[in-house]
Amino acid sequence: MRSLPFLAALLVAVPLLTGTAARAEDKPTIVAAENFYGDLARQIGGSNVTVTSILSSPDDDPHLFETSPSTARTIADAKIVIYNGADYDPWMDKLLSASTSKDRTTIIAADLIGKKSGDNPHLWYDPATLPAIAKALSADLAKRDPANAVHYEANLKAFQTSLEAIDKEIAEVKKTYAGTEVTATEPVFGYMAEALGLKMLNYDFQVALMNDAEPSATQVAAFENSLKDGSAKILFYNSQVTDEATTRLLDIAKQNKVTVIGVTETEPAGKTIQTWFGGQIDEVQKALAARTQ
Amino acid sequence: MSTIFDYEFMRNAFYACTIVGIVSGAVGYFLVLRGQTFAGHALSHVGFPGATGAGLIGLSPFLGLTVFTVAAGIGIGLLGERAHRDVAIGIVLTLSLGLGLLFLHFYTAFASQATNVLFGNVLGISLRTVIVLAVLAVAILVALVLIARPLLFASLQPELAEARGVPITLVSTLFMVLVAVATSEAVQIVGVLLVFALMVAPAATALRLTSGVGAGVLTSIALAVVIAWISLTLAFLTDWPTSFWITALGAAAYVVSGLVRRPSGAPEA
Question: Which residues of A touch B2 (CB under 8 A)?
């Protein structure tokens, strides 16, 4: 077969293409399944770690295509792996099982805050999640790299302080506007809406959409009514994923003077966890303040 | 220095693809010979309602997927040698997908646990899974050898076989069950496109290149395994999806084989 020498040539070429990367320094390598966990890892590890995030947009959903060999390789070489769990990123379990390692730490958000399969998987919007991961990561880094343990602890403190400021904002919104009815096309913002004390309408519609099932006629009708009769004060939508049905609901909301707020599933480029969450909470606060005037 | 085989996930991918290649090459030969490619395609997709339905009543999605696919295999097998087989398969396939949607409609929680079994990943295979796959492959190959003779007779000369008392419906149903088990398990592990691609193109190519059945099956297996190996290597080098390379090389092999003169007396593909 003519292809055999070609195959042999490829096998010889492999080490040349892959051998030089990584391992130049002994920095702990951290892989985060989603970019907000990667941002967290950078804030805790600082310049002492190398961080790679796999997903930076929900369009990167590995369900829709095959995980690439380079992604599998990055995970195989990682010392610490952070991912969401609760079946949001099940490909991580598979990739990890295919690359066994004795000294790798896996930090799973769902396990830290007691969530399981079937729960709303957008756990990072739950104010308890990021501090729990930060704590676990800082402790693991301190164990691996005792020389820099003070840095990791200081970074953890700074991270916690910055999140406390956001928690204070959340508490303020909750104090003033608890019980306000809102709705959403997708359950992305669900945990944060709950933390803000907002009452989420049309949850079954959101579940259907997430499951890739068509929302039923009654669900769609109930959704439209909540926008038309003024019960929903804010409509949250996932600004990274919009389709015809969402656009239609947004139009109905705008016609009926329901405030529309776009939230994102992953951290937008150029933002940090603090500016991203802070900005969205500001927007909610402003919208609610404007409505009550 | 790291090479392709330094990575455990690549070694496991090679093992798994070798096993899937052997089974797909052998099963695929009979599938293509019998003109049942569409049935194979349908069976690799009907697991969806099984997985979502099982999740709904609290059973393992893996179990649901397998049971549903085998049931569909039996259904297609019983409809068997009658006319309008494609129509029957089309109806079984669309009804399954419709049922899957209905089951999802009844979910009040997030269903990703159930639907995730439909997405195998060739780069995410543990050594334990490789062993499961190997055991399953041996079982399927043994069963195939046991029914090979009547199956061939029934495939090539159905009237004569029936006249000689070969239980045609039983044989074709057993074969469909084999295809069902092979696809439903392999889909969960290596992914739907990869399985189906390895089942059709190598077998169709082998049918063009060989005359005897024995040589045909062996060529089909060899092609499937070699295509899988080259594809994994190319995927590692280019970072393009493995399934793309398998479909591309499979199509190329089929086209090239068309240019080679067919030996006389080969069974029709």
Answer: 15, 18-19
Say which residues have a Cβ less than 8 Å from residue B257's Cβ, sequence separation at least 6: B205, B208, B209
Contact A13 B237 (CB under 8 A): yes
Cα B164 to Cα A220, B195, B213: the distances in Å are 61, 35, 21
Q: What three-state secondary structure class fits B252?
A: helix
In angstroms, the CA A48 to CA A27 distance is 6
Give all domains of chain A, ordered by start, each with its CATH number.
3-164 (3.40.50.1980), 178-292 (3.40.50.1980)
Cα–Cα separations (whole angstroms), residue A20 to A15, A23, B3, B7, B246:
8, 8, 11, 15, 28
The residue among A66, A87, A96, A123 with the most chain B CBs within 10 A of its CB, best to mutate, is: A66
User: Could you report the per-residue pLDDT of B240-257, keeping only the tens digit for each?
Assistant: 888 899 999 999 999 999
- Which chain A residues contact residue B7 at CB under 8 A? 72-73, 76, 99
Q: Which residues of A touch B111 (CB under 8 A)?
A: 118, 211, 213
Chains A, B: CB contacts within 8 A come to: 139
- CB distance from A236 to chain B under 8 Å? no
Tell me the per-residue pLDDT of A15-50, one tens digit each, with 9 for 90 and over.
Answer: 444 444 444 457 889 999 999 999 999 999 999 999
Coil, helix or strand at residue B44: coil
For residue B268, being part of any structural domain is answered with no
What is the residue range of B107's domain?
4-259
pLDDT at B215: 96
Q: How far is C-alpha A116 from the chain's CA centre?
A: 16
> CB of A178 within 8 Å of any CB in chain B?
no
- Shortest alpha-carbon distance between residue B107 and chain A (Å): 8
Residue B9, domain CATH: 1.10.3470.10
Chain segment B151-207, per-residue pLDDT in tens: 999 999 988 998 999 898 899 999 999 999 998 878 878 887 888 889 999 999 999
Alpha carbons B166 and A288: distance in angstroms, whole number? 77
Question: How many domains, chain B?
Answer: 1
Q: Is the pLDDT of residue A4 over 90?
A: no
Tokens of B160: 């004569």
Task: Return the C-alpha torsion angle A267, A272, A275, A278, nearest 10.
Answer: 60
Looking at the complex, report in whole angstroms how far the Cα of residue A232 sits from the nearest Cα belonging to chain B: 22
Range from A65-79, A221-235, A255-269, B6-20 carrying the lowest mean pLDDT: A65-79
In this complex, which of A70, A94, A216 lies closest to B105 when CB atoms are compared?
A216
What ipTM was estimated for this complex? 0.81
- Please provide residue A21's backbone torsions phi and psi, each rounded to the nearest 5 degrees: -65, 155
Furthest CA-CA distance within chain B: 65
> Domain for residue B200, yes or no?
yes
Give dist(CA A195, CA A183) in Å, integer.
Answer: 15
Report how far apart the first and last C-alpha atoms of chain B are (Å, whole number). Answer: 47
- pTM, two decimals, is 0.85
